[in-house]
C-alpha cells in the first residue's frame, strides 16, 4: 500500500508489500489492520495459511498500487461493501476495480 513507498533524496524505494513476516498464519483482521487486504493477491486470500506470497503476489500488489496512483483514490472505497469480508469475496471472485478512463487496452 502507499505506506510502502519511501522517498529519500529524490529517490523512490518500494518497501515490503507483504505482512507474511509478521505471522505464520495471517488473518483477515491482521490484513485489515496492516492496510493490506485490498493489495493482497486473490490466490493468497483464497488459500490463506496454505499459500506463501511470492513474486507474483508482489506484482499483483504493485498493480493495485499503480491503479491507486492513476485513479487518485484507494481501491474498492467507492463500492458499497459492508465489511472486510465483502471486499474479500469481491476480490477472490475475480472482480477488480474498473480500468481508469484512457488506459490503453493492453494494460
UniProtKB/TrEMBL annotation:
GO MF entries: ATP binding; protein serine/threonine kinase activity
**Protein kinase domain sequence ranges:** 1-107
- Protein's recorded name: 13894_t:CDS:1
Source species, please? Answer: Acaulospora morrowiae
Amino acid at each position: 500500500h502507499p505506506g510502502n513507498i519511501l522517498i529519500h533524496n529524490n529517490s523512490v524505494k518500494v518497501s515490503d508489500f507483504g505482512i507474511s513476516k509478521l505471522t505464520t498464519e495471517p488473518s483477515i483482521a491482521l490484513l485489515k489492520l496492516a492496510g493490506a487486504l485490498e493489495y493482497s493477491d486473490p490466490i493468497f486470500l483464497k488459500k490463506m495459511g496454505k499459500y506463501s506470497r511470492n513474486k507474483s503476489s508482489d506484482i499483483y500488489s504493485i498493480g493495485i498500487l499503480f491503479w491507486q496512483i492513476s485513479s487518485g483514490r484507494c481501491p474498492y472505497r467507492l463500492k458499497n461493501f459492508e465489511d472486510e469480508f465483502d471486499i474479500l469475496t469481491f476480490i477472490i471472485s475475480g472482480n477488480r476495480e474498473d480500468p481508469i478512463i484512457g488506459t490503453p487496452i493492453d494494460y
